[in-house]
Amino acid sequence: KSHSKFSPLITNNLKLFYFFYHSRTVLSLKLANVMNDAAMINTNLIGLVINFAFLFGFYYYASSESRGKIWKQVGYASVFLLVITAYANFEDPAKIEFRLGMLITAILLQNLLLLILGGIQLSMFAIYPNKPAAKETKDSKKNK
């Protein structure tokens, strides 16, 4: 059951949000382990906790139709991360540091592109403001 009358508006638009943000955090945590960087490990552990808190809250307010979609995306993200981390465990640490860094950068560049496109879309409100339609007069209605 949905807990809010507005939750379908929010939860039906999940798209790939969880996939990208959770994956980036886990990949950054793996990269931190490869680099043996304690500060980066702590930061990504905190990020992982925040991601799980977000997912729990999102799941709690999701409609029953959306919950299946959420589990599906969690499954996709888990398989993707399982493949990448398994590969990272067998690859040369010097090579995997560069490759994980490039993968994380690709995800971040995609987010930058979406930020730029969102900014352009929002600027359209200022460039083309909404104008009310012209009201018809009684004379123009009679002529029709």
How is this structure best described in words?
Keywords: Membrane, Transmembrane, Transmembrane helix. The chain crosses the membrane at residues 39-62, 74-90, 102-128. The chain has helices spanning 7-11, 17-35, 38-61, 64-90, 93-127, 138-143. By secondary structure, it is mainly alpha-helical. The chain has one domain. The protein is elongated. It starts with 6 loop residues before the first helix and ends with a helix. The model has no long low-confidence stretch (mean pLDDT 81).
Quickly list its features.
single chain, 144 residues, mainly alpha, 6 helices, transmembrane helix, transmembrane, membrane
How do the strands and helices of this protein lay out in sequence?
Layout: H1 7-11, H2 17-35, H3 38-61, H4 64-90, H5 93-127, H6 138-143
Keywords: Membrane, Transmembrane, Transmembrane helix
Transmembrane segments: 39-62, 74-90, 102-128
Short note summarizing the structure:
Keywords: Membrane, Transmembrane, Transmembrane helix. It contains 6 helices and no strands. It is mainly α and 144 residues long.
Instruction: Tell me the distance between the termini.
Output: 51 Å
Mean pLDDT: 81
The gyration radius over C-alpha positions equals 23 Å
> What would you call the structural class?
mainly alpha
Largest sheet: none
